Amino acid sequence: MAGLISKFMMNKIGKSQLKKVVDLEDSINDIPGAIHSTDKSPERFDIVGNAMRRPDGYKMMEIKILPSIISSMKNTKLAIKSMSKNPEKPKSSITTELLNDLKNFATEIGANSIGFTDLPHKLIFQGKSVMYDKAIVLSYEMDKLKIAEAPSFATERMVMRAYDDLGKIGNRIADFLREHGFAAHASHPLNGLVLYPPLAMAAGLGMPGYQGLLISPEVGPRVRLAAVFTNIENLPVAESNPHEWIREYCDHCRKCIRECPGDAIKESAELKDNGIQTHIDNTKCFPHFINKNSCSICIKVCPFSQVSYESLHTIWEKKIAKK
Ligand code: SF4
Ligand code: SF4
Questions:
Q1: pLDDT for the residue numbered 51
Q2: Which of 33, 108, 250, 314 would suit a FRET pair with 66, their CA atoms being 20 to 30 Å apart?
Q3: Ligand 2 atom having least distance to the Cα of 265
Q4: What's the rounded Cα separation, in Å, for the pair 320 and 216?
């Protein structure tokens, strides 16, 4: 019965909302000056649409995640509609003082970390566009105890809330930029317009692990990611990434490969057409993510979720020194 009710709610509310979101996203393609995906761009997996088509529907308790999904869709639309408030002649240079204010503001409103990079156009999802190619990349911490319970409804509810919270943070940062005379286009963390883990890597916020998720120095893979695109030309874009050693650590660890219930993490990396190297098979992971309460087992079992980055780095350096 609950499954039928949830299916009805998803159909009645969710699908029409999602269509409006996708139509709005696609309208960006027609805006003069928009930056389009390339022939090497990745295909987007539609988390929201697939969540709505979940074969078994949702148990009555699970309907509690709906407000976060609906709110995420509302804030995705707001991110696009609010671009109409961008200044007609935006400033393109930011002072050091205002940049520090921006970083402090991001932290105050809940971002875990903030980084800057030029957007590689090949990271824009197929058929999507963004308005500016200077990227402010944001991470948001997911609750440690709820990740430890994965897979569970408590984990799923927390994950969906994290998407929603971070989406609101992105919109507030876009508003902050507009108030100070810059143009901004926020991309929501749920679905989103670009592939976030390599973007966050380019911004120096961490390194994607074998499970395809960003491993951050602050809280390991317990992060969700989003971006705000802007016209600011002099952002301090990352020139290098001090976290590259994580990939070597993954080569040695491989725990997520063994623990993944979807057999979605490959032993050998695949080099995609766009130059991105990945161990993750999204065609196997996403169905599991959708149907098994956001799964998240690969986040739970990762050593970077359990031991501090600094401790693992020290252990790793000693190991390398012995070789
Ligand atoms: S979310 Fe689950 S299915 Fe997907 S890679 Fe992680 S452990 Fe595997
Ligand atoms: S579990 Fe191990 S191999 Fe997988 S992402 Fe974490 S450190 Fe890398």
A1: 78
A2: 108
A3: 4
A4: 21
pLDDT at 291: 85
Instruction: Determine whether the shortest distance from the Cβ of 250 to ligand 2 is under 6 A.
Output: yes
Average pLDDT, the chain: 93
Quick one: which of 162, 122, 130 has its CA closest to 41?
A: 122
- Measured CA to CA in angstroms, residue 212 lies from 19, 276, 308 at distances of 28, 11, 20
Residue from 260, 279, 294 to probe ligand 1 pocket by mutation (most atoms less than 8 Å from CB): 260
**Does residue 208 sit in helix, strand or coil?**
strand
Q: Using CA atoms, how far apart are residues 266 and 270, in angstroms rounded to an integer?
A: 8
In ligand 1, which atom is closest to the CA atom of 299?
Answer: 6
Cα→Cα distances 4→1, 57, 74, 188, 251, Å: 5, 7, 24, 29, 45
What proportion of the chain, given as a percentage, has pLDDT over 90?
79
Confidence of residue 316 (pLDDT cuts 50, 70, 90): very high
Query: Can you read off the two tokens belonging to residue 258?
Result: 């063994």
Mean predicted confidence (pLDDT) in 221-237: 98
CA of 242 to the centre of ligand 1 (A): 26
The domain limits of the chain are 2-230
Nearest Cα to Cα of residue 132 among 21, 230, 262: 230
Q: How far is the CA of 245 from the centre of ligand 2 (A)?
A: 12
pLDDT at 312: 97
Mutation to probe ligand 1, out of 210, 265, 291 (largest number of atoms < 8 A from CB): 265
Q: Whose CA is nearest to atom 4 of ligand 1?
A: 285
* Predicted model pTM: 0.94
72 lines ligand 2 (CB under 6 A): no
Split at pLDDT 50, 70, 90, the class of 287 is confident
Residue corresponding to tokens 């309907």: 63
Q: State the average pLDDT over residues 263-273.
A: 91
- CA dist 276 and 259 (Å) reads 24
